[in-house]
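Entry for flavin-adenine dinucleotide complex. Fields follow.
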Amino acid sequence: MNPPPLASSPSAAVIGAGIAGLACARALADAGWRVRVFEKSRGPGGRSATRRSDSGSFDHGAQYFTVRDATFGRTVAAWAADAVVAPWSARVVSLEGSRATPIDAAARERQVGVPGMSALGRALSRGLDLAFECTIVRAARDPAGWRLDAACAPGPAPRGLPERWDWLVCAAPSPQSAALLAEVPSLAADVAARTMVPCWALMVDFQPHPDTGWDAAFVDDPRVAWAAREASRPGRPPGFRWVVHATSAWSRDHLEDDPAHAATRLLEAFRERSGITAPAPAVRAHRWRYARPDDALPTLPERSLLDAAARAGACGDWAGGGRIEDAWLSGRALAARVLDAANAGR
Ligand SMILES: Cc1cc2nc3c(=O)[nH]c(=O)nc-3n(C[C@H](O)[C@H](O)[C@H](O)COP(=O)(O)OP(=O)(O)OC[C@H]3O[C@@H](n4cnc5c(N)ncnc54)[C@H](O)[C@@H]3O)c2cc1C
């Protein structure tokens, strides 16, 4: 446990409690900074999310993660020791027409949060100062620092916080971060250039059905990209709950559809491809407007964007890669750059 930061310590406001924002906040807090994370939803994790239902949970955003980087690997090992994550040994196939081809089991191990993907956000936020249900609508800069205008759920006003923050970290999806960085136009333009694509997610709870022979599939289809059976993941209750992700192209074409309409269309497509005919009493769809960075974008060399003179930076999976590990690395990279810049400015 770190000692509490002094009132004279540098301060940073972090907007967004996804994996990137939490990783950045953690590193700054570990360096003794006063840090607060502002999050518009009710809990941490962002797109690494879990939706509860009467019959069990749905990981309707990120499905699993893999590890390439050694530093991230050490964090994941600590999560595994705390039973926050576990390997997911699913029967994963590539589904082309009606042919299901198993995907190499010797590939990188797939890890999932336990009992849901939102466990990662909870683990990363431990010990941090977070304000949930607090949407930042504007960030303004004056000589005394950054001031945030927020629309927050009613509750006692936080005490002992600076009115002005020395540094601003935007850790929302790139279009949302770009809007918040309007006072630093060149940084905002660089963030806005990191475009993102949408994804509709279907959550369907079937009545009992015969085994399809696979737990998860990369689907070769213009509508459906991926499907996974929730109960195949460690720590989930049994059942016939599936998450189905639409392709980026289908999601873009149907972006403004009513969720009930999108759910019906995706269910039809999934039934066609999986052969599951069992009744589905509970079906709903979630629109991820900013699901992943555009594939065509190369990874930024510094995995983040920073304007040291303006004392503002931005991080997220959109800096390159588009995966949980990339979001974590981006948050850590930005924290290291902010600490260097702050030390150099002393
Ligand atoms: C459908 C889908 C499937 C995926 N599958 C995988 C996968 O299998 N494996 C994998 O590794 N990755 C996957 N990903 C990607 C993974 O989820 C992301 O890379 C990662 O979660 C991004 O983290 P982040 O912190 O950059 O952003 P986010 O998780 O988007 O966090 C940003 C946070 O900022 C908050 N916010 C935004 N604006 C404001 C505001 N004005 N004020 C306050 N808070 C704000 C948001 O509510 C959010 O919590 C998937 C993503 C989606 C959507």
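NOTE: The CA atoms of residues 147 and 164 lie 5 Å apart.
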